Structures are given as structure tokens and as C-alpha cells.
């Protein structure tokens, strides 16, 4: 097999590619045919040096990878996958929060009487979707998890109460090990929403999402309801409504533990 005379000239780094064995057979023949004696001698020296360098640690290269390195590589891969999953959920969450909430995957409901209006309406689903995605967006934030910190709790409550058009109250979760981080204002479907964030000493975070649900011809009033449960990926949420005002408590924790927190929140806000 020969190189066509019409082929473009060989690039300047061709000698290095020849030494590394990266030239095709036609290009290698063409290059050597054009090389003078001095060039051939230089190429021979370079190849000898390359082979000598490879032989220095050939025994090490042929050794099996130590178990400790394999374990470290496996841990690193798992961490990268976990980070990728978190960013994927956060990315989806950010898009949906900005679009006022679309697309949760599964729903579950605790036993108990529910109103027919609630079952027929998509308002409750849209509300808890927005709550869960808002939780996923701000869960990983280190520097700016909230707009107003817990040191300004009085101002925070007054501000959010004014924006939501009703008096708000921050539940006290200290008995369960969670302290208030702060809160923020969020967009909702036709009205403003609020989010309060809590954190325990281990860094676990819980968010309380709340806001009004304006009744319309196609979305009747949501009467008082019992807890409902919904999950999406790693985030679980308990939510309920009281006279057209919704509450959703979200966290990445077991259902039973989240239910205990939701019960406490409900009792304090009732």
C-alpha cells in the first residue's frame, strides 16, 4: 500500500508521530522515503530513548492495580455519580420552579377522607410539585440558601406575611433538632409563595413551603384536608390545605420521620 502523490504534505510533527508509532503505514513509508541519513539517525536515537524510558518501569506497568487504588477509584466514581444525580435534580428543579412547577412522577396518599373537589383538581398536585422542586433547588446551597436569615426572623415573617397577604408563623422544631436557617419569597401559580428552611447539626435540611390557592371557576376552593404524601427522587413531601392555603414540608429523609415533623408543624400552625 503506497501513499498517493496527490495526498497533502505531511505535517511538521510527523517525525514525532513516527517515533510513537502513530503514523499509518502509507504515511510512514512516505516519510522514511523522504528522510535523509541525518534524519534517519535522529529518528533511531529518539526511538531508542523512548524504548529505554518504557523499559525503566515495565515491571510496575505490568503489576495488577492495588486493591486500595481500585477501591479509591470506585468511591470516586460513586461520588461523581451522586453529584451528577444531585445536579440533575437541581437542574430540573430550577427549570420547573421558574416555570411555576411541572412534572412530578409519583403520588401516594395517606388513608383518610379527602374532598372530591381535591381529588378532581390539579391544584394540589401543582402546589406540591413546586414545593418539592424549590426544596431541591436550595437544598445544596451553602452561601445563599435563604434570602433573609434567622437572625432577622421578625423582619422575615413580617415581609413574607405582607407579600402573601396573611399572617404567617414560623414553627419551632428545636425539640426535633432543627433550627431555622431563614426564608425566601418564591413565585407561585397566580400568587406569591414562601419557603422557610430548617437545618439540624448533621446538616440535614427541611423546608416548609406555603402559599394561597386562589379559587377559580376551574379550580374550586380547597377545603381542609388530611396529610398527603408525595415523593420524587430523593425528596419526600407531606402536604395539606386549610381553607385554600397550602403547606408542604419537604426533606430527604424517611417517611416516618418526616411525618413526625409534619405533624408538629401542623399542630403549631393550626
Short description:
The protein has 270 residues and is α+β, with helices and mostly antiparallel strands. Helices cover 44% and strands 18% of the residues. The relative contact order is 0.11.
Explain this structure to me?
With 270 residues, the chain is α+β, with helices and mostly antiparallel strands. It folds into 2 domains: 14-58, no CATH class; 84-269, MucB/RseB, C-terminal domain (Phosphorylase Kinase, domain 1, 2-Layer Sandwich). It has 9 helices and 8 strands. Strands 1-6-7-8-5-4-3-2 form an 8-stranded antiparallel beta sheet, sandwiched between helices. A hairpin with a 5-residue loop joins β4 (192-199) and β5 (205-212). α5 crosses α7. The model is unreliable at 98-120 (pLDDT under 50).
List strands and helices in order, with pairings.
Elements: H1 14-19, H2 25-34, H3 37-56, H4 58-61, H5 67-98, E1 106-108, H6 116-120, H7 123-138, E2 148-149, H8 153-164, E3 179-187, E4 192-199, E5 205-212, E6 228-232, E7 235-241, E8 245-251, H9 255-269
Antiparallel strand pairs: 1-6, 2-3, 3-4, 4-5, 5-8, 6-7, 7-8
Beta-strand segment tally = 8
Flag low-confidence runs. 98-120
Radius of gyration: 32 Å
The overall pLDDT average reads 76
**What is the level-2 CATH architecture name of the largest domain?**
2-Layer Sandwich
Count of all domains: 2
- CATH topology-level fold name of the largest domain: Phosphorylase Kinase, domain 1
CATH superfamily of the largest domain: MucB/RseB, C-terminal domain
Order of helices and strands: HHHHHEHHEHEEEEEEH
- What is the helix tally? 9
Strand order of the largest sheet: 1-6-7-8-5-4-3-2
Amino acid at each position: 500500500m503506497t501513499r498517493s502523490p496527490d495526498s497533502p504534505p505531511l505535517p511538521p510533527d510527523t517525525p514525532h508521530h513516527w517515533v510513537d508509532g502513530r503514523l499509518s503505514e502509507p504515511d510512514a513509508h512516505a516519510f522514511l522515503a523522504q528522510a535523509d541519513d541525518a534524519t534517519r539517525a535522529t529518528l533511531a536515537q529518539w526511538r531508542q530513548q523512548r524504548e529505554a524510558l518504557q523499559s525503566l518501569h515495565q515491571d510496575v506497568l505490568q503489576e495488577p492495580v492495588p486493591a486500595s487504588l481500585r477501591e479509591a477509584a470506585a468511591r470516586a466514581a460513586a461520588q461523581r455519580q451522586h453529584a451528577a444525580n444531585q445536579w440533575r435534580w437541581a437542574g430540573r428543579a430550577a427549570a420547573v420552579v421558574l416555570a411555576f412547577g411541572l412534572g412530578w412522577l409519583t403520588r401516594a396518599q395517606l388513608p383518610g377522607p379527602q374532598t372530591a373537589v381535591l381529588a378532581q383538581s390539579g391544584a394540589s398536585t401543582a402546589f406540591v410539585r413546586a414545593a418539592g422542586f424549590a426544596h431541591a433547588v436550595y437544598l445544596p446551597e451553602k452561601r445563599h440558601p435563604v434570602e433573609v436569615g434567622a437572625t432577622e426572623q421578625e423582619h422575615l415573617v413580617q415581609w413574607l406575611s405582607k407579600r402573601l397577604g396573611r399572617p404567617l408563623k414560623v414553627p419551632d422544631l428545636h425539640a426535633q433538632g432543627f433550627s431555622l436557617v431563614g426564608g425566601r419569597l418564591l413565585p407561585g401559580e397566580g400568587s406569591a409563595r414562601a419557603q422557610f428552611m430548617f437545618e439540624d447539626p448533621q446538616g440535614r435540611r427541611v423546608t416548609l413551603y406555603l402559599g394561597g390557592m386562589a379559587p377559580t371557576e376551574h379550580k374550586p376552593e380547597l377545603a381542609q384536608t388530611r396529610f398527603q404524601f408525595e415523593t420524587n427522587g430523593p425528596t419526600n413531601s407531606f402536604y395539606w390545605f386549610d381553607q385554600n392555603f397550602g403547606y408542604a414540608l419537604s426533606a430527604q429523609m424517611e417517611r416516618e420521620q418526616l411525618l413526625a415533623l409534619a405533624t408538629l408543624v401542623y399542630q403549631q400552625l393550626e
